[in-house]
Design brief:
86 residues, alpha+beta
């Protein structure tokens, strides 16, 4: 799986051959959600409020990097890693 970041037990993925709109997957334990990169809206799935808040905080900080990694995935290039939330 193309993991791009990991922090506080949350794993962030962007998959190759994904559907629009640009989004990332955040996984925490058995929970998973898809979050739009441009709007940071939850598109599908569920995370606990704390995990979702951390994922959104991280995405807010790294939104431009997420857009770049999305383009890498769409172009089937190696995905850059993004720094974790500290």
């Amino acid at each position: 799986m193309p993991e791009i970041s990991r922090f506080y037990g949350i794993i962030i993925y962007i998959f190759y051959r994904e559907h629009q709109p640009p989004h990332f997957h955040a996984v925490y334990g058995d929970e998973e959600t898809l979050i739009a990169i441009d709007t940071l809206a939850v598109l599908a799935g569920h995370l606990s409020p704390r995990a979702l808040g951390l994922a959104i905080e991280w995405a807010t900080i790294h939104q431009e990097e997420l857009r770049k990694v999305w383009q890498q995935a769409m172009n089937h290039q190696k995905l850059d890693k993004i720094k974790p939330l500290k």
